[in-house]
Amino acid sequence: MTVPEIADEQGESQSDSFYYNAEFYDIYTSKYMIDPTDTRIYFDQLRASHRQPIVLDVATGTGRIIKGLIEHATQVGHDWSQTTLIGLDNSAPMLDRARKSILAPKAGNLTWMLGSAFELEAALTGMPLPVSAVDLLILSFGTITHFTVAGQGQQFFNQVAKVLRPGSGRAAVSFYRSFEKTGQPVRLPGPADTGRIPSQQRPGITYQEVLLETNTLDDVYKESRQITVRDHDTVLEQNVVTTECGLWTEEMVKRMTDVAGLRGLYQVVLPTELIWVFERS
C-alpha cells in the first residue's frame, strides 16, 4: 500500500513524516533495543515446523523478523519453495518500508498485510488466498508488553488459539522484561540522549531522541521521548512518542492461555526478553 502524500503546515509531505518514523524505528531498535539472537530462535522454530509451513509474523513492523528468517535460511541453504511468510501490522507506513526493503526468498511466498493482532482470524481468512491455520506464529520484541488496555491480552491469545494449526502449530511470544521480578519498573533500553543519528538512506537527514519523562502507575510503566528530525541543522519536525509497558506475570499468562486453550511448552530467556512457546491444548 502506498502512503498518500498529504502536505502538512510546514510543507513537509505526510509520507515523508511516516518515512522518517519508520526508518528511525529500524535504526534505533537495531542499535539499542534488540537482541539479534532472537531471529535465530524463531528460525529454529521454523525448521522444526510443518513440512509446508505457513509463518505469521504479528506486528511485523518494518519486517525485521522476516528479514532475519530469510538471512538465516540463506546461510544454511534452507529450501523456501514450500514456505509461506506473512507479515502483519496495523501501520501502513511500516509495511510500506518492509515491502520496499525486503525481497521475497527465492521460490518462496511473502505477503505483507494490514491487520490487527486482535483480529488474526479475520485477517487470514480475508486474504486473496485464504489461510485457515498457521504453523508458526511470532510476536516478537516484547510487543505483548504494550497490550496495556484491559482485555487485550486475552483477546490476542484467543485469536492465537483460533489460527494455530492443531497438533503441530507453535506460537513464539516475546515478553519484554520491563519490570524486574519485584514488580519495580526499569527504564527501557536506550540512552537518555542518542545524539544525532544519520539516516541510512537520505543524505543530510539525522535523528535525535531525548528522554523527556518516565512514570509508573499501578502496573504500567510509561516513558516519553522526543524525536527530532533534521536536514543538516534545519529542524524538519519534532514528535513526542510515549511508550507504555505493562507488568506480565507467569500466573497472568497461564490464566489467559488456559482460557484460550493454549499450553506453554518451554521458555527461552534472553537479556531483555523472554520468549515463551505455546501450542494448542
TrEMBL record:
Chain ranges of the Methyltransferase domain: 55-167
Pfam families registered for this protein in UniProt: Methyltransf_25
InterPro entries the record matches: Methyltransf_25, SAM-dependent_MTases_sf
Signal peptide: none
Protein name as annotated: Methyltransferase domain-containing protein
